[in-house]
């Protein structure tokens, strides 16, 4: 019933990820979009007036009529907010909400390195939500902050979880070809990417080299012990609207041929507690056996953009195994991931 | 003087690489374009009539007026032909020319794996031309076949030569983002690449994993001993017209920090005998220190498309060093490379 | 009920438009995909094996398992076939089906100029189906051939119908910017369209200058009297996957300001007999008042790709009014249009 | 001799058009780049440090070492400045230079509508420089402001000049497909143009409908009488880096078939006084007879980017004649045009 859904807000609602939140929350079974917050100059305008909507779907009608409010807890009186704020603003603003008793599920990177803030992927590490009580105690919050990983880390970490469970993982080299939407809006100038590749994304490689280690690590009381995996990343921007592709070469903990690795990936299931959540993709990982797939344009919407697609499993002459991972960066890797996290935390009784 | 230049032919003159040969030979100091050969249905037509010219430069006027002849030695009576034939046709046709006493400098891959056929990069392995006498003896040819490497191997091998000389090289992982022109014409359908990346190029990875080992190997009498380097490649097609970008992670033979590696690359010079040739780029390798370079659109024409551009030198957490290499695939990696090879062989007295 | 749906076939099922037919028929309320026909070398293979599927949606599972048959009436024993054949093949093949008592709803242009073959848009000229009895009598067919217009004519003709009804139309100048999918597959080589526009599409302008006149004409017994409208077209290919955009300048039959024209377009409704059909878009025409819309990427899926989107209504200093029309070329302008036509003919009792 | 060249400055030197000025002035026979001016936060930095160079050519070495100064006459002590300032800033700043005795050749649109400021194309209306003495008298300036037209007007106006001279011109409908570089940098966000066309460019259509009338008009004492031509324009942004394509339909003053029109365009010559200037293209107009040309990627650099390329001459069923015009928007349509204007004014003794 409508009246029993949890009212939620989106912070940074007019940006690229904010728009995805609005779209994905339009018809959510548990959450009801109740508040849209934006920057000062947009406050008081309707979403339709102030938002330069860039999704190839119509703006949801209900959202279109909503009026933008300030990103302050007093104007956003709901138990759960989704944050699409830029990291620098998130750093200051998100704690105000957590302190005010509001759960913040955020796509911003500002708190990912904090010892008491989990980076969550429900398919991978639902137990890391165990940091929330630590966080509340440490900071005196009745709310919480939970983050999802960087969009490039997302798909790769899901695939690595399956490999780690089956074979162990020791070393991983990743080269990304990342979509334009990952840079937000206005983001990458068209003159920089037409007939071009930009072999650099500021601060991205360090995130991709570290975040998977936290997510694949072990909750040890009040902190996460990082997984003992060495990761190297090259990050590139390519002329694709949505969908990050990552070439992965990995050394596993034991011998395994490509067919066995494919099997392990295909068989991978989300942990029991994640599997029943509305946003849990089925399958979590789709393994394609077509030579030239996955491809961003053709495969990014697999499982409504929540499934991780893996292909081209083959031996690596240096490490051990190589393959391609595709993940939709603004759905699984951003807004959809945050919503999935909120579902997890709600099912665990941490958002009520 | 015009009259003393060596008359040359281009086989497969109407294709993508053939057009580059025609353009680059338009004003060559040593070679004079004398014959254009094409497939049967084009024979008898002028180049202007039959060629769907796709270079962003006007078709050279002299070539425009030339009439296409058959790709048979009797119609191509010159001491040197450049071959832009598809490999399957090259396999049959190129030996006919070599047998007829004609030097064939080819971009086709058909003979690259033959023990007595060199894959030449004058900056890297001019001494491998020493296989030509072996080849002539083995096959009873008075002509010759000399190949240039696959376009993706080209830039990476030039960079590896510099590293090998200074530090040794043990293991190399390469991930390419390759230009559309590398697939020829009509090549990649536009519907396959718009808003997309294709993470697969047929037979490319095996070439990139093997050819550098031959070029960096040692001439031992009648064959090349492959360099003892392990290489792994992922090859991808991106929406770029010209210019292959390769992300490289390498383990060297000794410790070296990024600054030392940059220095070694910058200092690299072509061997004496290559340095004086008309097509020798200066510098052979340009190291850029801008964070976000090299980029295909902005940097591919460095050194008239013959210079290899390297950037983003940094430590690799798994192997040792990582960087980006850019090389113009239809100039340095194809037609320009073959012409440079012909200059080398001519200076060595093998083409007269 | 499933069992009562009309079994249908797709001819040319593996091509670009053929794939759209397969996708759109996957869940059609009246028609059930029963047969897929393809070219000789594909016969006997499953659709999944032989089709290079290029839609950004998964191949329907039922179709994937179907086996390709020959495009001959004896192998295609259904009352209705949808044809995505190339025109040259359609010319010979479609009459064989019509003669065999099968209704052919075709996207091919082969018969559009025949006096007794209608070009149908159910929103525009459902009454032109009155040519079918003439056609049957003339040709001794128990089946029929009905065509949909060229994809570029489609959206413009729908808009012109609304204008003609309200104000009359005298002269129309159209400049198209057409999507790549309109050229089929492999279609436009990527090297021809990257960083480029191709200001030419073979035979397109003559179609766009003539077909709307037939569709907007009057059924006069056994033929259509062409509408007395002068049309000029410039046709261009741009780097867009789907969605044809047409800039239109028009001289109407009476004075009307942009607001009145917008009103007439917004108010336009499909004729009663078309309105109840499953594929009838609602609205038929959507008028957007945003300055910079419609845009192909953002608006092509309006009304599941069946709605015609019009924007930028303003005065034209030479003719009278100018505006932009967007129509999805492989849905409304091709497969979806043919299916809509079949629905119309079925509701009129001509397909049973 | 170097020492006798006129020292010149570029205002707004780091922007998209500013970079073109710097590149084109690198080796100019009459002008020597002496000063680069930029916005406040760049002052004191070298051009290499502060400029995000986006041309696919290396930054000229001399410019790279120059230090940015403020855009104030006291810091820019040269007889001639080229302005690539945004219009809003040009409005205030350019008169300060003109007052200080400096000739300003500007690409900005700020003064184009002023009665005493000429919009110059040396091939079209060199005599309009006759407004300069009027301007000096009106405004008490010892310097001057001369503008070049909007980049989209440029090519079309050159073609119309040839038609006007030969046949007269009455009505012209133009639909542009404009390059991304025309929007400056950062300009069009990549997410707005990937797989898309934007059928709107702010304030562009009114310029294209008016500027050609001024340039094709007649100097009548102290003002220009606008040419009596009705023009309608639709302006679109497409995914092309450089080169504006315009589809033109025109009604001439007398009957002329496509061949006659082609002849008139081919025969068109710049007036005597423009012909001898260094930047005068030869030919001024190139008429191509290939069906599918001109194309931006292949033809924009014709005549070093200064030639106007026209193709697809054919009858127009509504007006009279139709064709395509291509002009390089940042060379002929911006920086190259301003430089050409300065050459004209110098040859006329107005810049010394």
For this entry, give a set of tags.
352 residues, 2 domains, Dihydrodipicolinate Reductase, domain 2, Rossmann fold, alpha/beta
Structural account:
The structure is a homotetramer of 352-residue chains. Chain A is of the alpha/beta class and 352 residues long. Chain A has two domains: 2-150 and 335-347, NAD(P)-binding Rossmann-like Domain (Rossmann fold); 151-328, Dihydrodipicolinate Reductase, domain 2 (2-Layer Sandwich). Chain A has helices at residues 16-24, 47-50, 61-65, 87-99, 131-139, 151-167, 190-193, 204-215, 258-267, 272-275, 296-299, 331-347, and strands at 6-11, 31-38, 68-70, 80-83, 103-106, 144-147, 169-178, 218-220, 223-225, 230-237, 244-252, 285-287, 308-315, 321-327. In chain A, strands 3-2-1-4-5-6 form a six-stranded parallel beta sheet, with helices on both faces. A six-stranded mixed beta sheet of chain A has the order 10-7-11-14-13-12. In chain A, helix 1 (16-24) packs across helix 12 and helix 6 packs parallel to helix 8. The relative contact order of chain A is 0.15. The model of chain A has no long low-confidence stretch (mean pLDDT 97). Chain A binds chain B through residues 171-173, 175, 177, 194-200, 202, 209, 230-232, 234, 236, 238-241, 245, 247, 249, 291-298, 311-312, 316-319, 322, 324, and chain B through 171-173, 175, 177, 194-200, 202, 209, 230-232, 234, 236, 238-241, 245, 247, 249, 291-298, 311-312, 316-319, 322, 324.
